[in-house]
Fold each of these.
Amino acid sequence: MKKYILKSVCIVSAMLIISCTSTKKSDETIETVTHDNDNLVEITVEQFQNSKMKIGKLSMETFNKGVVTNGHIDVPPANRAQVSAIMGGYVKTSPLLVGNWVEKGQRLLTLENPDYIEIQQKYLETFEQLNYLKSEYERQKTLFDEKITSQKNYLKAESTYKSTIALFNGLEQKLLLMNINPSNVKEGKITSIIPIYAPISGSVAEVYTSVGKFMDASEVLISIIDSKHKHLELIVFEKDVMSIKEGQLIEFQTPENSERIYKAEVHLIGTSIDQENRTVRVHGHLEDKKEPFLVGMYVEAKIITYTAEKLALPLEAVLEEDDKYYILILNEHTNHGYTFEKEMVHIGLKNETSIEIIDINNTLKDKQILVEGAFIPLDEEAGGHSH
């Protein structure tokens, strides 16, 4: 916990009033009472108002305990595509830029290669041979059935015809993979250019090529990401994974907006441990899918494994002094000001705004406590000193 100091107006009062005095008027006489309590602090009404102080009581607050981890924003494998060509070629056109949205089936770029022509020529030649080979096979079958020709001639004609059919079908499938229409080839329309189409809808994440560059079949041309189904991909160490359960709340932050806490839910937990890093992957579903997260964005997260309601005070209501913790309890309120007594307390859980006060005997249940304007963090005061 951060060390806290009393605001300047309170420090002055505390230094001046080590033992407090008050006066009582009875039967037209003034009686002076001296207090020997060094823990009393007097604050004037003006100081109270100027420092925007506030008196309150212990209240129930929610405290969480969890596993601190990190990870990144990701999408499922089905929403990520690395586009390559079935055959290498020179890039003819490449009009897309990173960030462009493309629809499934949209033309991305075109490739050019003389080898494409040879495949189409072979397909066309095979197509033309089929009619002859089919008629020859049928003729030999008839002659063989009538015992006019030998079985050898018949089997040879059958083998040639069926193997040519297999070659023809294989070439046709290859043309389809190259995005060339076989019907056009049968009509003699042969091209040296093939188009490359988008396999999914999404945004262009990377363009790895440029016009005129030769790209092998193994090289990625364009990367596409459909970010409509973003999720959290977290890394949890082996020692913590047993406390992680599906459905648990995830609170996370991004470096770009570290002051805001986003929420997600544990959806899937990996069933094997990475042997190198001794970690497990945890997949989380985002609460708000409309947030403009970028795929690959780093996140710091906390998976909530324990939640409890506890009596608490705001962080600024508690002073740390020599590893002990104190609060200011209202002792007296007059028209002239306020008198508080500094009392030691025991603390428990903490969150971003509150700290648990352990009050086993309920001695603080109905006490009025200075909850705002009492103490401020040392790092908020230039040259601040602990009280």
Note: Residues 114-145 form the longest helix (32 residues).
Amino acid sequence: MKRVYEFLLSLFLIGSLYAVLFAHYPFYLKVVFAVLYFAIIFHTMFSLMLENRTAQHTLLWMYVLLFFPVIGYIFYLYSGQLYLKGHLFKSKRKNDREEWIRVTKEDEKPDFSHMQDHQKCFATYAHHVALTRMNSYTKTKILKNGDEKFTELKKRLLEAQKYIHIQYYIFRSDRLGKEIMDILKEKAKEGVEVRFLFDGIGSLSLQQSDIDEMKHAGVKVHAFLPVRYGFFNQKLNFRNHRKIVVIDGKIGFTGGLNVGVEYLGEDDSIGFWRDTHMILEGEAVQTLHAIFLLDWEYVCHEDLLENSAYTAPEKVEGDGKVHVVASGPDTQQGIMSDFYYTMIMCAQKSIWIATPYFVPNEAIRTALKIANQKGVQVRIMVPEINDGFLTQYATRSYFPELLRCGTEIYSYQKGFLHQKVIIVDGDMASIGTANMDMRSFHLNFEVNAFLFDCTSVQDLIRQYEEDMEESVRVGPVEFYKRGLWERTKESFSRLFSGVL
């Protein structure tokens, strides 16, 4: 009903503006239409004010509504409104919360006494905020770049006996995509249950003929929020950025790599692709699996969490603790930003960050500055060349304030750095799908794994140090000498940081 109301208002707005500027009506009628136009604009501005956003965001959208007739209003409906109060995915959020409470029942409070102070600081916060729980009986292995990830993935898929559940933001119909789809079709014909979920926007290049072939072979295929919902439907802004594969409830994959030949470095326009993925075995796989099953239920209305065949935990001998956390419109607003903030604030010695998109909110920037002031070593690694003009220069716009307080910033030179990794104090880390930007914090569906004392953390440290050898440290003096044109591009791009 709200969508119809907004659509009618947009029609009245367009009609009123046309009547004032172009129609041959008497003057008094033009005044009436002008009053109607401004009444709609001021009604929208009043509704915007009642949302109690930050003053700068409220004023920004008010200026857009006032000074960009009709276009500003449509842009506001499409990308400025975004139901930040949480109405859009209310039913999914409510259902997911009830399901998490049911499947994560605990008889006793977890024991964090053996942890270091910084680990205990973060783990305690995560326990009280996340609906998921920390797992001890889990093994993890870091997969560096596409070669390692896809070699391991194809091997494990071929070994599947019962079911394969697979979910990606980007899945292409190129050579790599067809290889994986061929395996899925082969396993489905063998009697293995295969469920395949892809994002309706991120995977637009996935050909319908390939989807039909998978369905014909017995693969259950569905799109998450496909484009048929229309331009005015704000669900187009919310994308499922998760990358999840679960095989027989024993093996799980997650991380930064989608499915496409560019992730193997075979796209000449992009070049070498640096990324990090992870394979999990044991108890934490069921948490990762539950996130997939809840997304599947939302799209297909098939409740599989009630079936113990999909939820029975498989415990293995672990070497640390793993906490898998989902974030997005189906969880508490901005929860991944809060997790990153808490990791940074709990650090005592070092914070190493690698991210392709560094567009931090004020809380993250403040936490990094405080960490520097406490004597914590802060390193941030970003790609020298990004895959988007706005993201590249918006990222650079944050360099001056961080360099001034002592942050070490490294520009990765070898190719495009796409991994999303945070390492704290050498024994705690985050790896997953969430970038350090507003879109990952507030709009996208994401999933991250937080690692405590796992050998995988040491692998991440070693790989980070290897990446530093392929990077150039941004020097404060040299950076401040950049030209006016560079500063202009940075300042312009930063204006769009709220939607990047």
Note: The chain has a mean pLDDT of 90.
Amino acid sequence: MSLQPSKEIPPAQVESGLKLVTLDGVTSEIMVSLTTGTFLVAMALLLGASNLQIGILAASPTFNNLFQLLSIWLVRRYNNRRAICVYCQLAGRTFMLFVGILLIASKPELNWVILFLFFYYFFASIASPSWNAWMKDLVPESRLGSFFARRSAFTQATNAIMSLSAALLLDYVRKHHPSLELTIYGSMFVLGSVSGLIGCYVLAKTPEPLSYLSRENLFQLFRKPLSDPNFIRLLSFNSLWVFAVNLATPFFSVFMLKAIGLPLSYIILLTIASQLSGVFFVRRWGAFADRYSNKSILAITIPVYLVCLIGWSFGGIYTSLWANLLLLFWIHVLSGISLAGINLSLVNIGMKLAPKEYAIVYLSVRNIMTAGFSALAPIIGGLLADYFSDRHLLVNAEWVGPVREKTFHLVALNEWNFLFLISAVFVFIASQLLTQVKEAGEVEHREVRKILRKQLRHELKEYFLVGGIIQLHDYFRERIRRRTV
């Protein structure tokens, strides 16, 4: 199979390539859903991980982005982004396979798992800039928002199905066959890595437009994005944003597993609620980003995520499990809605502000600059969680009456709750930097919010009122009829 780029790609081949990119997203998401997030944290805790080791595991993917300079050198040397992306992902996902075999064969030291995952993230970080620059040339700019929103919807739906299935299996094994739990984690890593290797084959079949990268000195190339004032403002916002988010995110699962004591299936169901919320909204965010601007979407979604972080600070304060679950449910739903818009907009605005001939340089500089902040945040988060482990802040309100006395927990902060509140402070500071970023076609976010509210109100009426249900039934019946004709 030839991996050489093409000077011209016919429109039909472009469309075929976009379908392959979506399929690659699904196969890769199977790997991600089985080997990262809550499952990786739960596996690490099973091996006796500390807060600091959890932080190191979370920091490894972003720390390795510092090596993306190698990707630029390789693209300049070979001018073949597809080959670089495919071969690096092939190598990285093989290391993921080694982790699975290691977990099945024995109960390894966690440091060995961290080492193998380091190499997996190392090769993935080299593949990432090549993939981003390749997609910028392959996907029509007018469809960036809608295409990646649609792709994201497929990948999140895949994640929900795989995660829930694995969580139910693990809860069953924990209860009835606890000695096999580590073997199940190993099998999940093997299955995930095999799916990822299939994704490499799919990417190898995806066409690549021939690109041109200036032969200027490498350091002179890097000076271009660093001398772009608007791009520097985007880097400042993006760096502080990833620091704020990664300070707390790796410890959400730890908090639910250890502080609240939720089963894995409950945590995954909450995660699915978040993902489904994202799936429902991501296409809308994509359409609004194409129609208005990515910055307008960020100005709406970041405050919502800020509220979610503050909500995490109150997690676990109720004596009733269902009250805590209700709070966590709404936090996950609102997080899914907001992060769908935030992640999509950050990818799109980075691509949009990068000149075509220097796209890989701009995107790599952004990834390298933010990598340090992303990697440092969870390590600092782990240290802060350890620092606050024996410190508590409790604020109660008491009702004393002749018949009954009642104590209401208003605030109960411990090691993780403190961390979530600190993260919220940094998110607020980052949101202030966003106002300085300029984007072509920018629309006042109040106007976008007004239009979005009107559209959502209309859609909610259609979906949840009786007349809307009838219309939905007719819609599906018509679709089925068309397929059978």
Note: The CA atoms of residues 273 and 333 lie 6 Å apart.
